[in-house]
Design a protein that fits this description.
The structure is a homodimer.
Chain A lengths: L2 E7 L3 E8 L4 E8 L6 H18 L10 E5 L2 E3 L2 E3 L13 H9 L3 E5 H12 L8 E6 L3 E7 L2 E3 L28 H5 L1 H13 L6 H7 L7 H9 L3 H25 L3 E5 H19 L11 E4 L6 H8 L6
Parallel strand pairs in A: 1-4, 4-7, 8-11, 11-12
Antiparallel strand pairs in A: 1-2, 2-3, 5-6, 8-9, 9-10
Chain lengths: 318, 318
């Protein structure tokens, strides 16, 4: 039986898995994404994470039929460019060949969000649908579309639900534009917002909880704990994120009228069903055909979806 | 050679054409859409408009191979429901059978915006593209999608570019919701806005121009003339419409990344290229891949596109 490696390269963590042909996870490993250095340093961490997962699966990397990587930025064959959430990765870097040489196995690259959406479509919460929108709510807000059972990429740039405009002259987004969904709902934008509010003298437990749990950023876990503690600022910012996600996804729905919406990503998975339900409720007032909303689900593959989806890259046209 | 009838049922006017197999217009006629009465009265005006177009083409309606009708509202086989821009047309009315009996010829119905978009795709400004978004800027703001050379309707409700949300808690829309593109750019919403501003004592030439030209509503021609006269209020409201259209279409682009955008509808066609260019400029700051904007064109078939597209209904699956 063939085995495959899959790596999800995220803005905060690298998740690696080794799976069999039925997509059962034989081994997995996780490492933080480097915040300094450059693409070559990130590639070394990807290699290490995959080696750890292979050890857990009691395999050597060259025994794998191949390794798939879901990565942010623009993927062209084996190159990755404009991975702006990663350190010093604006230009193009030959990630595929570099990793292939290091591991001694073929490597295929795919866009992280498309890979995770394909995994939910084939194996997860999107199995029942022919058309769906994956929404990955984490450091940024990524998205990908499946229409009539095939990925829809347009001319290569489709799926950017996080950069749909929900306020024409609204909050400044991580991308430099104004009023995007991500400007309200992205964890990066939210963390900057918290800093500004604290500078103005507002109180929050967010940073205490961050330090208590040994974090240097407001991770999804920190946000979840702050909500459990009833932290007012956390509640307000998450409410605002839910409103923006609701408006953006409803806008998308009014345009393309798909069957299912899958909410994934660090925050999406960590906050889970109650917040997917709240996003569905926030969509409702904006839906043009409000009698027929799309089905909204939390990503069923959870944290491992991106890596399992990356392993699928070896067995499809992508 | 076969000949076909086509009727575009709009919120303000009914346009009928008779075309040959090459879609050359042999005769055309136009009538105002009834503002009182009900579906049966509208059907009678459709019949009269088609008869006038047939007379101009020197044909009798029963000689036609069929008549296509592009209509607002929800189309199910021969029935039309929820045509809210038309008088007393909330419920279902058997428009197809009624018109077929009256004219002595087979009748096919299609959604007005989908029909006009298909016409631009097959014969007009969309000929060069495999994927496009039709935006019909008139009484409302309608839209329709062509993806990979086929109409994309989702579960039947796709294409509602006019009801994408550009301001989360924004202006009240004709549809009852808040912050839709149509709340800023629809001629209906704009006319109500003018009334409110005039009640507050603001000055405008819009109503004088309306009366001078024998109109009872602020038609696209009235708006165009007010702009030519340098009317401040007209300029401000059209600027606001252009901003909302730019944000909405850019949002759509960020999600689906299509090749072409066709701007049609009463205002779109009347204001023409300079305003299509302004809409493209208003999109630019919101485009996530701003180095690769879609091509933006005015509908090439102009006012007749909807009717010519309706005649195409007889020769395709829709």
């Amino acid at each position: 039986m063939s085995t495959y490696g899959g790596i999800d390269l995220g803005g905060t963590k690298i998740q690696a898995v080794v799976v069999d042909e039925d997509n059962s996870v034989l081994g997995s490993a996780r490492r933080p994404t480097p915040t300094a250095g450059g693409p070559a340093d990130v590639a070394r961490e990807l290699e290490s994470a995959l080696r750890d997962a292979a050890v857990a699966a009691e395999l050597d990397p060259p025994e794998l039929a191949g390794v798939g990587v879901g990565t942010p930025g623009r993927v062209e064959d084996g190159d990755v460019a404009q991975a702006r959430n990663l350190p010093d990765w604006e230009g193009s870097f030959p990630l595929g060949p570099t990793l292939s040489r290091a591991l001694g196995v073929q490597v295929r690259l795919g866009n992280d969000v498309q890979v995770a959406t394909a995994a939910e479509f084939k194996l997860g919460a999107g199995r029942l649908y022919d058309s769906l929108l994956g929404v990955f709510w984490g450091t940024g807000v990524g998205g990908a579309l499946i229409l009539e059972r095939r990925p829809w990429r347009g001319r290569g740039g489709a799926g950017e639900i996080g950069h749909m405009v929900v306020e024409m002259d609204g909050a400044r987004c991580t991308c430099g534009r104004k009023g995007c969904v991500e400007a309200y709902a992205g964890r990066g934008a939210m963390e900057r917002h918290v800093h500004r509010l604290v500078e103005k003298g507002r109180k929050t437990k967010l940073f205490d909880l961050m330090r208590e749990h040994g974090r240097t950023r407001l991770t999804s876990g920190v946000w979840a704990r702050a909500l459990e503690h009833g932290d007012k600022m956390a509640q307000q910012l998450i409410d605002r994120a839910v409103e923006a996600l609701g408006a953006g996804i409803a806008s998308a729905q009014n345009l393309i009228d798909i069957e299912g919406v899958i909410i994934g990503g660090g925050l999406g998975v960590r906050l889970g069903h109650p917040y997917a339900k709240r996003i569905a409720e926030a969509m409702q007032p904006h839906l043009f055909v409000d009698s027929q909303p799309p089905h909204v689900h939390v990503a069923a593959l959870g944290d491992l979806g991106g890596a399992v989806g990356a392993a699928l890259l070896l067995r499809s046209e992508g």
